[in-house]
Amino acid sequence: MTETAIQARNVTRELPGPVPVTLVRDIDLTVNRGEFVAVTGPSGSGKSSLLYLLGLLDVPTCGSVWLQGRDTAGLSPDAMAELRLASIGFVFQFHFLLPEFTCQANVEIPIRRLGALSDSQARKRAAELLDSLELADHRRKYPDQLSGGQRQRVAIARALANDPPLVLADEPTGNLDTRTAHLVFELFRDLAHRQNRTVVVVTHDAELARTADRRIHLVDGRIVD
Amino acid sequence: MLPLGLSIALQHLRHRRRQTLVSLLGVALGVAFFIGISAMMQGFQRDFIARIIDVQPHVIVKDEVRAAPRQAVERAYPFGAVSLRGLKPREEVRGIRGARNMLATLEEMPGIHVAPALSGNLLLRFGGKDVSVNVTGIQPERERHVTHLEKDLLSGSLDALYTTSNAIIIGEGIAGKAGIRKDDLISAVSPVGVVLKMKVVGIFRSNITLMDNFETYTLLKKAQVLQNRPNVINRLNVRLDDVEQAGPLAAAIERQFGYRSEPWMEQSRNVLGIFVIQNAIMYSTVSAILIVACFGIFNVISTVVFEKTRDIGILKSMGFRDKDIRRIFVMEGLIVGMIGTVIGWLMGWGLIEFMASLDFQMEGFVKAQGFVLYRTPKHYAISAAMAIASATLAAWVPARRASRLNPVDIVRGAG
Which residue of B has its CA nearest to A48? Predict the structure, then answer.
């Protein structure tokens, strides 16, 4: 049985202004639980904008985004923040790790913000995540002591910290060499197929995108393929 | 383990260590100066007030009226346009009329001591030196219940005014100026031309400079002779068991008898007025220091918000709410405010102890040995409240800006 993880219903996002700019238009998209989806398209096609809308970072001008069968339209910013915290993990092109904190502490941040685990449990959970991403030796290191691929894996560990059913990645391999990029994509496929998470990855690399279960091609804010 | 927001706030401050230290120092200096200066000023003010309450009569009834008496024609036509020309006021004998009755009435009231007095000018002449002084005729048996004179005597006694003929008690300042010592004979010349050889039977020191330099005391009878005003009293000095009643009592006396009655606050109005200005200057100086410190705090936190825009974006995308972000930055202001306060407390305490250790002679309104310091937890509490409130306020503005940043703009801009 397939379960709908996230759904965009007729979603349009415009930036207001003297000349309104349409980021995405009339998007209808359903992604199932455990699916690994790649979003491709030329730059400026609205790939990232779609991802932010799916991830509740941005709000559609019209249409609505349904997360796990619930309509998120009309939710307060605080309620959306809580949903992001518990249900969505973000990975960006830049790792965005807090430079003053160790890798371990960076991964603990969302866990502690959610507050469901005690401090010692949070420590253990972060350590396990880093171990599973083969970063056990780097837990005490600071982000600037790691290589790009290692940093991106720490960022993935942080995205998984609260065990979210949905993982969204915006050009996660943009700054990585080809070999590392493939490793990261393999990791995402694992998250989808072995851990039954829903993974949506924005990429401009067609070759990497081919490794996904499904590809969505955007041009000028519309799904064309 | 520290709460999450607090540990992020501390990391931010540690990241901007030098700026944070400067802001801390600013807050600390503001707090320290407030504590030090308040201790000094309030110490002096309270000491002064205690002394004048101790030394001077609490209420003085004078042979004056506050407003010139209204003419009969003005009383008859209170709303008419009355113009009087070439008016010659009646020459009245100065002095309190019916003073004996007043004395008797006041003495019957509980908790009140009254002493009559006649004060006037006198020129003391000794060894070729002239000193112009005030002379107050007193009744020693009453005076000792009303003023501090007896306790202020360095030598001699109040009763010697009775036992010695033509006896006078002079202030230490006068004695110093003219080189007069106890038991010296001096000549006293009054404005009406009476000249008396008087014997100094006592020297007092009240530590209130003006009194020590200008006041002398003799028997009431002798003063009346000197001024050629037999049986005249021009002043009633009142002392109360409860100082707080001075104001109402003075008003009541004035209402009942019509003579100008001044409570101690009015007698020392000039000085008390200066205190108000002093306090205003102190508070504005300290506020200025704290405002400068606040600019420092504002600056650090604004810089941090600017530098940490990416971190703010990622924290928000992670699920930090606006108020979580705001709390982090307000907390940074609070941390600077609180640590600065504690450092300021220590510095202020040290400043007070340092001032207390200074030893010097000071002669202004009063004579004092070193600083008179007033130590009270109130100053610490007030300074802490001011510092922490202003630090929080200074942090609030950049904190609000941080909380309103849109994460999409940040992550998109970086990509």
Answer: B412
- What would the pLDDT profile of B26-69 be if each residue is shown by its tens digit? 889 888 988 998 898 888 888 888 888 877 888 999 888 877 77
Residue among A222, A188, A224 nearest A203 (CA):
A188
Of A85, A93, A96, the CB nearest to B314: A96
What the block records as the tokens of B192 is 């009406």
Greatest Cα pair distance, chain A, in angstroms, is 53
Chain A residues inside the 8 Å CB shell of B4: 109, 112-113
Tell me the shortest Cα–Cα distance from A91 to chain B, in angstroms. 10
- Side chain identity at residue B123, one-letter code: L
- For chain B, give the mean pLDDT: 87
Token pair 């409570």: residue: B263
- Sign of the CA dihedral with B143 first, then B145, B151, and B156 last: positive
A111 token code pair: 């866990």
| Spatial distance between the Cα atoms of B401 and B387, rounded to a whole number of angstroms | 22
Q: What is the pLDDT of residues B214-234, one digit of tens each?
A: 999 999 999 999 999 888 898
**Chain A residues near residue B314 by CB distance under 8 angstroms:** 90, 92, 96, 98
Instruction: Tell me phi and psi for residue B196, to 5 degrees.
Output: -130, 145
Separation between Cα atoms, residue B29 and residue B391, nearest integer Å: 14
**Chain B closest CA to A98's CA: distance in Å?**
6
Of B311, B323, B324, the CB nearest to A98: B311
Cα–Cα dist A181/B172, whole Å: 97
Segment A52-69, tens digit of pLDDT: 999 888 888 888 888 888
Interface residues of chain B, partner chain A, Cβ below 8 Å = 1, 4, 7-8, 11-12, 14-15, 310-311, 313-324, 407-408, 411-412, 414-415
Helices (H), chain A: 47-54, 77-87, 103-114, 119-132, 148-159, 178-193, 206-209
Which residue from B minimizes the CA distance to A123? B1
* Secondary structure (3-state) at A70: strand
Instruction: Choose which CATH entry (3.30.160.20, 3.20.20.10, 3.40.630.30, 3.40.50.300) describes domain A4-223.
Output: 3.40.50.300
B321·A78 Cβ contact <8 A: yes
CB contact under 8 A, A90 and B412: no
In the chain, the amino acid numbered B372 is V
Q: Nearest residue on chain B to A79, judged by CA atoms?
A: B321
Mutation target to probe the B interface, by most B beta carbons within 10 A, among A61, A96, A160, A162 is A96
Q: Name the residue in chain B with its Cα closest to that of A56.
A: B317
H/E element holding B362?
A: strand B361-363
In this predicted model, what pLDDT tens digit does every residue of A124-161 receive, in sequence order?
999 998 988 888 888 899 999 988 888 988 999 999 99
ipTM: 0.88
